[in-house]
User: Fold these one by one.
Assistant:
Number 1:
Amino acid sequence: MNNVAFIGWWAKGLLFENCNCQLVCPGHVHFSNNCTEERCIGYWAIRFDEGSYGDVDLAGVKAVVAYDTPQHMISGSWTEAVIIDDAASSGQQAAVDDILAGRAGGPWEVLGRFVERRLPTRTLPIEITDEAAVKRIAIEGLLSSSIENIRGWDRDQPVTFQNMFNQVHGSTQVLAQGDATYDDGEIAVKNEGTHALHSRFDWSVSPE
């Protein structure tokens, strides 16, 4: 997997997801759990708010990782596709592709060990809307999705996981439900009111 020499990089930003599991996706808690459907199909939406990959500034780059996995995610044999915003520079696109394909170390390298089939990376316009309780993403002709925080006892506060370990998410994760339509000809899903959550990610890799 490590066919690109690791350079120093770091990134912080917004990460949200939706899949076809009922809330909460068992695979999100641990890949050894069986997901609620025969296959777990969904996406991670990523907005880099700050960061650098070597001397490449990552701020402002948006991307999506779509996936189709077995019910038992730890078994591997995932199919995965990366889409990067076409507004990013060629240097940013190459850097983000290295990160999300797992070639640059860090959390995505761990997830990459489960990927058997990686579809060609695409560059398309990506729109992300970030409101307090609602996150939306749109890629014309490919992905349309929104997630909304579930309501807790205190309606002014989100329902959260605290200190929840996850390879890509931050330690505080906000629980949500979402709708999504995604179809790239290989990975396809239509979700209504299914598992979703969001967090602030913080990734870094020291240079080798």
Number 2:
Amino acid sequence: MEEKGNNFKIVLSLDEKIKCLEELIIRLKKILYVYDRSLEPDSKYNYRIYCGGVAMYISSSNYLFNGELVSIVVNMTSILNNKLEKAQIKKLVFDSVNYAEFLLSSYKDKKESDKE
């Protein structure tokens, strides 16, 4: 935790950021599964509810990542606020996964370089 004047800011370690991004990637990939299941007759799945939970997780994580997850927040907001076809949802999800994987690899590289 950092102190700036009378304010405190929570700061994640590299290991915590890596773990958070790994969890985020799993949740993002699950969106397509939940979407497919929600289209089945008599399904108890609702992809909008699941996406809302993922969006809340990403939004709160974004603060801890100093705004690096904004593009993923925007993609989740688009999925939640618009009626999109599966292809559009798939594109937004994979764009988000690719970006999260990019961040993950950069944090892993940074962790390795810090060891040296």
Number 3:
Amino acid sequence: MNTKNRALTLVSIFLLVGFVAVSALSYWSARQSLSEQVISEVVPLTGVSIYSKIKERLMAPIQISALMAQDTFVHDWVNEGELQPSRMQRYLAEIQQRNNAVTSFFVSDKTLNYYHPNGVLKQVDKSHPQDKWYFAVKQSKQDYVVNIDLDTRDLQSFTVFINYKVVDSDGQYLGAIGIGLSVDSVTQLLDENNPHQQFFIFFADKQGEVMLKGQNVIANPINHMSDITGLAQHQQALLSREKMVMQFNLNGQIAHINSRYIPELGWYLMIMHTEKPWDSRIVKPLLFNLLIGFSVSILVIAVVFYTLKRYQRELEKMAVTDKLTGVANRHGFEHIVKRMFANAKTKPVCSAILFDLDDFKQINDSYTHLAGDRVICDAVALVEDVYGRVDTLARWGGEEFILVLPNVNLPQALKIAEDIRQKFANSRSLFNQQSITFTASFGVVQQQPGEDLDRFLLRLDQALYQAKQSGKNVVYSQ
């Protein structure tokens, strides 16, 4: 058995034995892995998704209420003594109709009148429980307060009221104004983000009262966070931070809860997950893996060997190829030149052209670096047009290129260089509908008997230097 087959056999044995061992132990680690994935990835992403959808649905009524609070009509009407209440009535009716709102309102702090599109409904009274919302808004440090009014006929539907403070240009508090919009069921939104019912999702206010909740996967009714066994002692910590993830004991099971403060509502979004000892997401994959493990292992061995070999070739190609032009880079070209010099006995004639694009910095400065990249790529294409091949062309550095010409003597090399020079001078690069002219200077040498690579490249560089000193856009040889 040769070394390659021995290695393949050993890899196969280790893979199969390892697979069996890992499969036997995977259940115990899979539970922990699944739990960590749910807590670190699924739960946060679910929270972000729900938050973004809630924010999207509430931004419109919040912005409308903010514009109403800043409306100079409202400020002037109040400061003028609230004359002609019908004017405010028409204003609120127009806002309600224009924005398809359930209602719109304004409560004056001076008269305590509750203005509505249908007229003055009443005067708010601090002693009435149903009017406490107004005085809470007045005492709030926030610009607005969101109030949720559940429909007693259908607990799945609700109305969002945006109560926005009205403050005039002098900083005087004038009252509260806003609209009420009918929003699709939040519980439906919560359940849409919980298709497998693996979470219990709910909203809680700053006192821990459950305001809205998705499908209850917990046996006992939940109206307050303290109703969840084991959570009461952690309530204060969860409601004192903008974000928090914690673990607690729920009736002997490990439960995780992720909290996120929703400033637009003034509530906390809570996503709770309880670990199940025999989760089908663990058991089914385990049985499936055991069933197909051996056949998959064989395929994996073949794929691994094939993939490694292919990637190795790609990495080798990337190491010797210029990314912009697709020709060889300096590292790759050194291998080409060394092979040519090693074969000097069978291929005694070898010439090379080293050319550099003239005033290339000016092209970059005038037309941007992207335009400079276009010029470089066009130059390579023009070399291929003249010489017919670019497998011995390399980007030597920046805008400098070297073209090795095997079996080409100096006069022939000079002819090729001159043809390329003229091709450059008579061509244009197009970039963003701009025509860019460019030229290059060329140094040409032929390998001398017994000359090594370093000496050859030195003479080539000197020839290019002389071409530059001779006024550019010229061909110079040594």
Number 4:
Amino acid sequence: MRKVVVTSLIGIAALTIAGCQSTDNSQKDKETKNDGTSAVTIVDGRGKEVVLEDGYAKNFVLFPNEGTEMFSITQSVEPFLGMRKSDQDSNIAGGVVAKYYPEILKVNSNIMDAEGDAPNVEEILKLAPDVVYQWTSAEAKIKPLEDVGIDVVALNWGTYKDDVERYTLYGQAIGKQDRVKEVLAHHDKAKQAVLSVTEKLTEADRQNHVFVSHVKENQMNVWGTELPHTPVHKVENVAFTKGKITTNDADINAETLLQWDPDMIVIGEWAKDITPDYFFNHPVLKNLTAVKEKRVYKSPTSSLLDNPGISWYFYAVLSHPDKFKGFDMRQQVREDYKMLYNIDVTEQDIDQILNVAENKHSKSFELFMQ
């Protein structure tokens, strides 16, 4: 407001200023209630109330190996104060997200103690995060942090419902509820599109598959149906396949796999040295039906958690290629990476994400190629 120098107007000006200040203060009070600077209460995955006294968290330490999942919500590395080295090295380094956001690999990873299991409380206190995210199953690793006054939001893991809850808790703690709704709606769009096809299939169309996590000599580790790295089994009928185990995982040998004789084999992308060619050239495993029919695939390098659309389509299309005529997987990748990470991927990026070099000799994979 312009100053008034005429004496007779000073009183009026003072009243006007007072009125403006009152209005401004009232507006500020409203904003204070809505801008996350007042205390925020969250009920986490344990059912425990976590009160963030200073309002929405502006930064965090992330213990779950879900860096790109969280990044799909923040679309910025700035809030990341700490994350696991194993997440950076095994899940992010060398990938497309790291290519465009290399600073995510520079986030402080000194959050574990020397044994590599318990939290490095001293280092985390130095980071002074507004909130720490940890799995509910790691209660012994939560207590040392809460004992020194650090707010911990515990997250569940395993089912699709857990995934939705986890995203919701991310958003509630950092004030990104609207962004989380957008991300979940994007996931749901892909899910519904796949279900519109697979829910029309009959039981005779259902195929057996095996998801291979690791291979060492004659032994291999295969994963069960409720793990988040096989998200297709979290939503009933989304890929219309079935596995052989319902436990978390199982260690089996080549003979057991021959007895199972799956229609399709999918190899976890983190099994770096194992590709479809390993099975195609194996003196024993080459006798599997899936190998004879060239239906062995390396899963996409995109995170299966924050990119479930790619995973759902990957399984569904390769399981039932004749049912998805006209579907453009490469466009799906473009849309996912733009919406989730704000990345405009190149054709080379898409080839990397879909493991085209490893999958190019597998049946029907030409549907995903340029």
